[in-house]
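Table S2 (text version). Query chain:
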Amino acid sequence: MSKIPLLATVVLGAALAFVPVAHATDAKAAPKTAEPEKEAEHHEPAEGTQQHKMKVCNAEAHEKSLKGDERRAFMSSCLRK
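Corresponding structure-token output:
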């Protein structure tokens, strides 16, 4: 086994996972049709979850045009509810 540290190996492996690879079938792909592609479905976070609270509190803070420390304090208290 080589003497490359494990972390370097993991990082390199993760980086290589995102390298695009050309496949032989890509060149022979059928032409695109005129139909628009379907957009990914957007799922709302379940009510009562931390994600839902964050979304609601963020919307309220935006409506109130809160910035900086005021926004931080509001978000903190809103998320505790």
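Notes on Table S2: The chain has a mean pLDDT of 75. Helices lie at 6-16, 24-27, 50-63, 68-80.
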